[in-house]
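Schema walk-through. Below, the input block comes first and the output block second. Nothing else is stored per chain. Lengths vary across the set, and this one has 429 residues.
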Amino acid sequence: MPCLFTIRRLIVSTVAAGAWALLASGPAAAADLVTVEGHGCHVRGGEQASDVARNAALAGAKRQAVDIYRSEVRSQTDAGTFEVDSDRARAAIADALTNVNVLSLTEQDREICAKIRGQIDPEAIRAVLSDASASEPEIDPGALQGDTRCRAYLPARVKLTQPLAGAGRVETRDSLIRRLQMEAVRQQRGSLVRGASQILTASKNGDVRERFMSRMRAQARGLVKYDVVSEEVLAQAGQQVLSITIDARVCVPREPLPRTVAVVATRSTRGAPVPELRNILEQELAHSSGLVVVSNSGLSDVEVSAEIINVGLIERNLTAADLGPGQGALAGRYYQLTATLSGMATVMGSGAQVTRQVDVRQMVPAKQDKRLATETFVKRKMVALAQKLRSGLDRELGIADAAGNKNAGAQPGSAGQGASGDVGGGLNH
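--- output ---
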């Protein structure tokens, strides 16, 4: 195969004369080194095909080195500020890569594939990590230009295909690149965003991952850096498809992203929706510094539901004897109002549940219409329930209040005292 032979000669001569020779000049003794290998391919065609394949193989060798020395990095650095997956840690390991050689350059189907072998000097890693840990900068040098939201980037290799039918290659490529970036985020699952209580917002469960993806689209859009490893057009199932592989780096935000919360259901004693209760819950949840209220799309991090279990009114005439000594002036006609409301917040990533209940009986002077008195009373208890749910949810998620204190939350089973603030509108109960 003259073509392959020519390419191989060109690559070998380039390696001997260029940067690869510099990498291979490390002075460390072979007995002290650890061998790593990498393999990479790129579609044939174009002057850069072999270079891309070789770079992909080198990236694979570096990833293997990171895996081997993961525990070494963690033992040498502060995991809170200098993680093994950060750009600086990976750069430190790459700096210790020496004796790099191209073992093979072959054609497989329509691709050019390279295999690279190198060696890692453990002492060099320890020295570089020690220096880097002592001079850790405030801003990760691997962050996007002008962006201080990311404290590190997590690596991910992603390969996807997309049909070319009905669209040009440029449009298909743009669409596929966007899918690849989001798939890189998906692969990292819950490692990207954690709350103060370390509750994962995503998991291997597909449904929960979709919630995580929705959240990342809304709050961390664009925080993915990538390099195209390979790109080719293939024939699959009788149609042309574009196949792209990328090496991506996904942002780890410096601060936990606010969780999205949706009120999914509010029911009256008859099972009918209660818009007033939904509005009160959303308004109260919006006051939390760690929550963002969203519509009920089925993709929120936290789902809240509430129910009016019981509402009652009994008209009573209270005499001085009923009220006790010195209370005779208060004798008269009263409404005895009772209400029982229950609410639950479910954290979708962990399955944790926060339940609160308001169960109140109260006597009020019969100075207004029975229906109006009932509506006013029940809506005040709606506010009390919403406050207890928000407080309990903040406590479960470890969300601090505006003063920086952890929200203590309401205790389960505590009585629901009256709250101020009436809300207009009718009540279906």
